[in-house]
Each structure stands twice: as C-alpha cells, then as structure tokens.
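Quick entry, no commentary yet.
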Amino acid sequence: MDDVMSRDLISDLPQSIIESILTRLPIRDAVRTSILSSKWRYKWATLTQLVFDEKCVILSNDRCKVEDGLVNFITRTLFLHQGPIHKFQLTTTHLQCCPDIDQWLLFLSRNDIKELVLELGEGEWFRVPSCLFNCKKLTRLDLFRCEFDPPPTFKGFLCLKSLNLHQVLVSPEAIESLISGCPLLESLALSYFDSLALTIRAPNLKFLCLEGEFKDICLENTPLLVAMSVAMYMTDDIAEHFEQSSTCNFNRFLGGVPRLERLIGHIYFTKVMTLEDFLLHTPI
C-alpha cells in the first residue's frame, strides 16, 4: 500500500495522455509544470497545440509592459519547443502590428503547422508575411484585422479545409484566387468586406458565411453546399447598384446549390429603403 501511495502515477502515464492533460491547461500553466520535477521539465515542450490568449500575461496598467511580457513569453515558448506544432492560436488585444509575429510565423512554417489562428487587437493592421504562404500543410486558417497579399507565385493551400477572414484587407481577385486554389475547402467565412463582387468556385464547400457590403455574389461551382448564412449591409452605393444592375439576381446566386438545406439571410439598410422597395428593384 505504501509503495502505491509513494509512486508518481501521473508522471508514469504515457506521453500521449500527459500531452492530452497539458493541452487542456492554459499554456502558461502547462509551461509552469516544468518546475514540478526533472521528469516534468520538458513534458510541455512537445505539445503540438499552442494557444496564447489574455491568460498568458499578468495584466497591468502599463501597456508596454504587458506587450513585452506577452512577446517574451511566446518567443521563449517557441524557442524551447521540441518537435512539430500542428496548431498555433494567438488571440489577444495586447498586440497589433508586431515584428516578432513575423519571426513566429517563419518558425511555424518550418514546423508542420496545420491550424493557424491570428486575432490581434485594434490599431495598426498586421501585414501577413510571405512565409505564411509556404505553410503547405495548413488545414485551417483564421485571420482577423490584417493585410493579406499573396505573392504572384502562390498557387493556394492544397490541404486547407477551413478559411475565416474577418476584417482582412485583400483584393477581390486575391480572394477568388485563394478560394479556387484550395480544392479541399469545406468551410468559408468572410466578414466585414466593402463593396465586394465575389465569384466562389469551391467544389467541396459545405458551409458558407458571408457578412459585409457585397455588390454581387455568384456561386459558380459549389455543388456540395448545405448551409449558408448571408448578412448584407445595404449602403447607398450598393442599393443603387442593385437597382440598376440586371445581373444581380437570386437565381444566379442560388442556382448552383442543389443540396442546400439551410439558408439564413439578413439585410441591413443604411438608408431609408423598405424591403418591398428593394425587392421591386431587384431581379428575382
């Protein structure tokens, strides 16, 4: 009985189970397990999922101190990490445009990254570095408040299944090229885009969420689409475009979705215009 009580049962668990336990902890707490014993010093260092958020740093009224603390913690964590990193998530209001992020992404591009989520705070927008487009194994990409400018040689993410772009500065041509360059894409979310005319070609797409000022939406090759949510902001310019255009019609919009099971639509008017007026001026 005494032998059982004195044994370190947790340390003797298989590494896969220990990693599963550590993954459920905030990353700061997972790293702090290194002080438990010599056995635990680098247990956390092989985690394949790294999630950094507001819990990673001690809050203070000194913004620079908080930002420096967060940058140093992430940099040190990546420096000590061993093996592949399949998921990297950074969700924080304490960082905006930061040169260290470029170095983190370069490191991740060399470590088999599969899921990448970047949600930074308000302020100067972060410009996505070219090394991101070398992440050939990406299956999920979520970007918030950044500039996205693929190089001319970029042909797409061949393994990508989920794409979420929120308040991202990118040309319409680049979005369409990106979508068509992801042949396995199953889930697509685009939000807060201005005056965008978009043609979507995604043969494996199943879930689509659009929010913003869209002048035109054409679903050209989406035979597997089953669920769609569209929230349109009807500004003066876009309302005039709908009134004058003969190409903006719902047949063209919904004609290519034979398997559609669920459709949610919202139209938000920014000028005095009734839904009846809108429908009367919009070809069906």
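second:
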Amino acid sequence: MVTGKDRQKQLAREHYRRQMQARVERQRKTRRNAVIGTSVAVVVVIGAVVAATTLLGRKDSATTASAASPAPSAAAAADPKPYDPSTGTCGYVADKGSGQVKDVGMPPAKVSTAPATMTIKTNLGDIVATLDSSKAPCTVNSFKFLASKDYFDDTHCHRMGTSFPILQCGDPLAKADGKNPTDGQGGPGYRFVNENLTGAKYTRGVLAMANSGPNTNGSQFFIVFGDTGLTPDYTPFGTVTKGLEILDKVAKKGVIAGPAGDGTGAPKQPVIIKDVTITSKS
C-alpha cells in the first residue's frame, strides 16, 4: 500500500530529476540565444553559410557527449577527462554556459588520492566530512581548489527537502530566498567527470555532487540526512561524520515551498556557509 508519505517522497525524487533537466534546458537556451546573436552578425559580414556552420558546430556542454557536436576550434568544448592513475591527473574543462559564474580559475590537473577531511563552517555550526579521494579524486581535488580560493565563503544553501531529505549548497550566487529564479544555476565556470557511481546509494550522511547530466559537475553538492531513493547518477565523494543534527533541526523549521509542491525549497532557517577547509593526510 502506497502511503501519502511514500507518494510525497516519489514526487520529490521526480521533481529533483525535473529540476536537473530544467537546468539543462536553461543552459541550452542561453547558449542557443548567444549563438543566434553571433550568427546574425556573421550573416551580415560573411554570409549565411558560415553562420549556419557556427550554429551547428557549437557544443552544448549540458548535453551528453554522444549528442554533442564538438566546436571546430574551441578547446573548452572538449569532454572532461577522468582520473588517470598513470599520470595522477584529471581533466577539467571550461563551461560558462549558465552565465551564473564565480570564476576563480581552474583546478590543477595533478591530484592527490590521500584521505582528506572537510570542515564546512556554517552560521549554525560545523559540518565535518571525510572525503573519499581514492574513489572520487577529481571531485575532491576540485573541492580543495575551490576551498583554497574562498569560493564557498558566505554562500547560501539554496534548496532543502523535508520528505526528500537533502540540503543542497554550492551555488555561489544563490540568494535562497524562494524568489531568485537563478538559484541552482551558479557554478565555477568549469566542469568535470562523474565518479564513483557503481553501487552508489544516497543514505543518511552521504555527500554527493549535484549535476545537470553526465559529467557536468561544478561546485553544487548535497548532503543527505534521510532516505532519498535516488538513482546512482550523482557522484558520492564523502560521508558526514559530524553536524547532521544541524540539518535535522533546519528541516524541522520547514522550507519556502517551491512551485512543484513536492516539499522542497529554500530552507526557512537560512544555512550560510562561512568557510570551507580541507586537510589531507600525506
């Protein structure tokens, strides 16, 4: 028998997938409009044939690699590369398609797989997590880089669920007021591969990446504080060891309901990241 609570969880999961798809569509529209504008200018100067080539050759990084056509001369259109154990490197690629970018540069290609610990200092207390550098080296390396650049400082966690128990953070431009239409679109201006998906489960304490499709990871992440039932499409890269009670308390305050009516929205009790520090065992 399907209970009302089970149905609400199902709606929340479906809305999460719809939201990720909506991000893809917004990015696609932004890029399409930009290319159309460029194409019009090219038509005036060079001709319609060149304009059509420019439009069709443009890579939309929010689509899967199999569906995207690489731009003829743009290195940023290349696919991100997974961790190469022979060289100890990851491949990050530029991606400013959403327009909501806090640009602090690109992470170094050389990564460490040594165990690491992340402390997220919030206005409500510390959240501490162990990071799995061996299974998600590109992800952890990116977080180390962003933390070193104070990227997350004074940012708002913009989405929370009650029956869908996640807290989503990492959009550097989010306002988390329930009104800002671009909340959830912000990122660092680069992307990288999915990792550690085999057998991935999103149970209480799991730390995972939010994305808008395969290999579109940026800076947004979520912390699970209950049972989500999500499919293994989001890179799990750590486990919270301290501070989950903060999320429990915030969830009890409720959320500013979003239009989908699935119980997710900006948390009524603001969660503000003041600082992120990561230490590694060498």
